[in-house]
Specification:
single chain, Arc Repressor Mutant, subunit A, DsrC/TusE, transferase, Sulfurtransferase, transferase activity, cytoplasm
Length: about 100
Amino acid sequence: MQLELDQDGHLVDYSIWDQNIAQELAKSLDLQLTDWHFEILYAVRQFYQQFGHSPATRPLIKFLMKTVNSEIDNALLQQKFNTGLVARHLSRLAGVPKPANCL
């Protein structure tokens, strides 16, 4: 699968995103996405569409706690997504731009 990515590995055109693309992007994290992962990724896309920007970690977790499950926290997301860079990698897997505050 040939994807057009920016210098940070995010999709150039977030509107082409689908679950197959997300799974392709997840290979870099050695991750097989499940329904649980996709529920989170759809919520990240919802955040982007609702607020017009990719979420930083704290607002993302608050949003996920309200929209997906109140038990979600940073440690759980780090564990389930095999990354310490939660906001950056979840945004990348969800097909939206890198959050502004990420290096």
